Amino acid sequence: MAVKHFLQFSDFTLDEHQYLFRRTAELKRRWKAGELYRPLLGKVLTMIFEKNSTRTRVAFEAGMAQLGGHALFLSNSDSQLGRGEPIEDVSRVVSRMTDIVMVRTFEQRIVERFASVSKVPVINALTNEFHPCQILADIFTYIEHRGSIEGKVVAWVGDANNISYTWRQAAKLFNFQLRAATPKGYMFKDVDGATYDDKHFVQLHDPREAVAGADIVTTDVCVSMGFERESLQRKVDFEPYEVTAELMSLARKDALFMHCLPAHRGEEVSAEVLDGPQSVVWDEAENRMHTQKALMEYLLLGQVND
Ligand code: CP
Ligand code: NVA
């Protein structure tokens, strides 16, 4: 049987995602209750980071330890990847010795090449195009606070990037609408060959139009990792796209503010919003660990009922 990977949100069916959310709630409950649950005893996760990370690394490493397994960290500066070893060769070697792999890298094509020769499940831990682990945690966080996301409106204010492209895939799968406001030179592109109708995705430019009546307002840095050379121009182009309390007030009264973090107060979001009562950013961050535990358990053991 083919090895199952999680390289983009659309790799899993609606049923699989719903199972993951149920399982996440159960694993989170057990962890909060202090219960030891170690189904992955003896299993090893390899974590390959070609870009920086705080949340993703901590969530995977702590999560794997809690499930009884071990996680090991490889970066460009301390592995042969940094000296040009082909990604397929790294995959062949790593997947002979360890049980599951997560990869944070540049183009989506790189993680796809890694997975194409891997004997074990591969998880996309962020590429230029997608960040499926983040949106898994974000939707779980919405469900915890407000219930089902079906039929809701998510306002995206800012760059068309890995986070927003994954929100767009999620909108189609979960049947909600992503209303995105980006500057004219930074519009959404085709990154996955999928088609999106107005019911699921609307490209706008005016942040006020996107946020009006929304259930979630979300944004991200205007300079993603790998795009640092464009920093100066981007900071100018994205200035009108800061999520302020005034902008937030156009959303529904019970709207949530989300951000994958790290955030830049006074750039893409004001401190008042990020640290304010509608913000659930710390829950999102913690839920990275709970959702990724459910994901690793699923990829290694399939659906578990105990
Ligand atoms: N949100 C997120 O992926 O954070 P890190 O870059 O710190 O892992
Ligand atoms: N869009 C950001 C997300 C960081 C978690 C980046 O790719 O740098």
Automatic annotation (TrEMBL):
- Cellular localisation: Cytoplasm
Q: Which Pfam families match?
A: OTCace, OTCace_N
For this chain, one GO molecular function annotation is:
ornithine carbamoyltransferase activity
E.C. no: 2.1.3.3
Q: In this protein, which residues make up the domain named Aspartate/ornithine carbamoyltransferase Asp/Orn-binding?
A: 151-299
Specify the pathway.
Answer: Amino-acid biosynthesis; L-arginine biosynthesis; L-arginine from L-ornithine and carbamoyl phosphate: step 1/3
Q: Which reaction does it catalyse?
A: carbamoyl phosphate + L-ornithine = L-citrulline + phosphate + H(+)
Q: Where does carbamoyl phosphate bind?
A: S53, T54, R55, T56, Q80, R104, H131, P132, C133, Q134, C260, L261, R288
Name a single GO biological process.
L-arginine biosynthetic process via ornithine
Keyword list, A-Z = Cytoplasm, Transferase
Naming one, the record's GO cellular component terms include: cytoplasm
- Indicate the family of this protein: Belongs to the aspartate/ornithine carbamoyltransferase superfamily. OTCase family.
Q: Which HAMAP family match?
A: OTCase
Q: State the protein's purpose.
A: Reversibly catalyzes the transfer of the carbamoyl group from carbamoyl phosphate (CP) to the N(epsilon) atom of ornithine (ORN) to produce L-citrulline.
**The name this protein goes by in its record:** Ornithine carbamoyltransferase
Q: Which organism is it from?
A: Leeia aquatica
Task: Please state the gene responsible for encoding this protein.
Answer: argF
